[in-house]
Write a structure and sequence with these properties.
alpha/beta; 2 domains; 11 helices; binds nicotinamide-adenine-dinucleotide
Length: about 325
Amino acid sequence: MRFGLIGVGMIADFHRRAIQNVEGAEVVGVTDKFPEAARKFGEQHGIPVFESIEKLVKEGGAEIVTIGTPSGFHLEPTLEAAKAGAHVLSEKPMEITTERIDRMTAACREAGVKLGGILQFRTFDGPKKAKQVLSEGKLGRILIADAYIKYYRTQDYYNSAAWRGTWALDGGGATMNQGVHWVDCIQWLVGEPEWVQGLASTLDHQIEVEDACHAIVRWKSGGQGVIEATTCAKPGFETRIEIHGEKGSILLEDTRIKRLVIDDEEEVVEQVAEKGGGYGDPKAISTAGHEYHIRDMIEAVKNNRDPVVTGAEARKSVRLITAIYESSRGGKRVHF
Ligand SMILES: NC(=O)c1ccc[n+]([C@@H]2O[C@H](COP(=O)([O-])OP(=O)(O)OC[C@H]3O[C@@H](n4cnc5c(N)ncnc54)[C@H](O)[C@@H]3O)[C@@H](O)[C@H]2O)c1
């Protein structure tokens, strides 16, 4: 299947390498709002460069495009790609508001193309095993579910591109950019909140958006917990998701299950050594999760089924994060 890359920044190179590693997938072209950046990337990797998304699809023959532009600029490329007839695989967060995600979903539906979202951490063994344990009800009723997302990012990271750390294009800080992976995982594991109460602050970076966020969550299942997300936790700790039910507990550390205890029995979980990473350095992630999404997107197109993360699925974490921001601004609980 022929892929086109929209955006040629940091993550685009992960897309390029992931596509290369998947049998039956190839990159046929790239495009970027900044032609000089596209030219450099194309030259460096020997990939044809197109001046527009329409040309990438119609002349370059891209059947699926991956979107690696700033988070608040995923909608417009999606609208253009769908209009040109290409399927779309968008980076996380799928967009920075639920309204913009809904427009992506509607445009792809109307054009008859697939829309997939990249939220790769839920595709790793640990979160998948946790999902299975919870779906089978092995922990009983869930009482506590917490996510501790302690990343570190330098001021140089935020200065490295004009869109980083802005409300308009990053859509938020530690919670929307880095935290979205884990907010996605925890809500995928335990379901929607009933309400959230948040406190988002900028403590240690020169940015508009938050670099520290604490939220209390009442889960619809009846339990409660906290979501903490920061980019101030030098040097960056492995993320922990801790879920406690009537019958036992799961501790996820990064993408691996560290402990699984059911009815006082400690279970040993077989899982590959692959980690999600990225908590201390944005480039310290593997391409494995992206490869999963590339394969899944190809299968979705070939078999005319939904990708593993649809627009409806990707909007859940964005709904939760924007509710935390709204609560922090208004000083009140936000109900779902
Ligand atoms: N899945 C993951 O683990 C992961 C990791 C990093 C980034 N991402 C996501 O990938 C996306 C891109 O992040 P990145 O780190 O590659 O960014 P980047 O700044 O390195 O690259 C962004 C690209 O978009 C272009 N661009 C910059 N400003 C633009 C603007 N105003 N309008 C249109 N295009 C613009 C740039 O030329 C560049 O090609 C973001 O949505 C981010 O959240 C995902």
